[in-house]
Amino acid sequence: MRILVINPNSTASMTVQIGESARRAAFPGTVIETVNPRDTPASIEGHADEALAVPAMLDLIRAGEARGFDAHVIACFDDPGLAAAREVARGPVIGICQAGVQVASTIASRFSIVTTLPRSVPIIEDLVAGYGATGRCRNVRAVNMPVLALEQEPETCELRLLHEIRAAREQDGAEAVLLGCAGMSDMCERLQALTGMPVIDGVSAAVKLAEGLVGGRYLTSKIGAYDFPRVKFPQAAG
Q1: What confidence tier does 232 reach under pLDDT thresholds 50, 70, 90?
Q2: Predicted TM-score of the model (pTM)
Q3: Fewest C-beta atoms under 10 Å: which of 81, 97, 108, 237?
Q4: How far apart, in Å, are the Cα atoms of 28 and each of 1, 74, 206, 218?
Q5: Comma-separated ranges of CATH 3.40.50.12500 domains in the chain
Q6: Is residue 216's pLDDT more than 80?
Q7: Which residues, if any, are the signal sequence (predicted)?
């Protein structure tokens, strides 16, 4: 099967790192291709960034469908444009927040999320509520560092992540922690080893969910909300 992993921001180095994480998670024989738009924000840190990124992301998904990809993964924890993406695709479209929440809810009765900036906390809280997991999510924490700092100051980010993961266990009663940014995916295994608790990367979770849906021959429903967008013609002047 072929899965297209889309980083909606325009930072190519982050796309490379996301691709490495996705390929480590994939089964042998699964082809993972990664791509990002060129003219979207360098990182997605709020609703305005999301809105600016979505049109180019939808174009990449349409192109991926035309090229025969079986599924698409949106590699941004805000799950930007997820419902719109499902409208334009017949194959499954997976957001890494939703996938991570589903995995966390399956392997632990309570979990916390650790993200980048405090401004992302309410956005993620709303997503968790929309996915029906508020009762299981004990807390959304932030390391108070911007997304691009994950590449620029990786050691500092990892230390802050370690602190928040341990606090999630001790203070929140969390049994697992979900990393709240695609740019954290390459730290997942080290953080799990250092903390001794399950640490979930949404990129890997989304790839495994996509593989399962494609293997089960499940397609996006085109009845109702996720039907293809209606074609509209401009009205004649006069």
Answers
A1: confident
A2: 0.94
A3: 237
A4: 10, 21, 16, 21
A5: 2-96+204-215, 97-201
A6: yes
A7: none
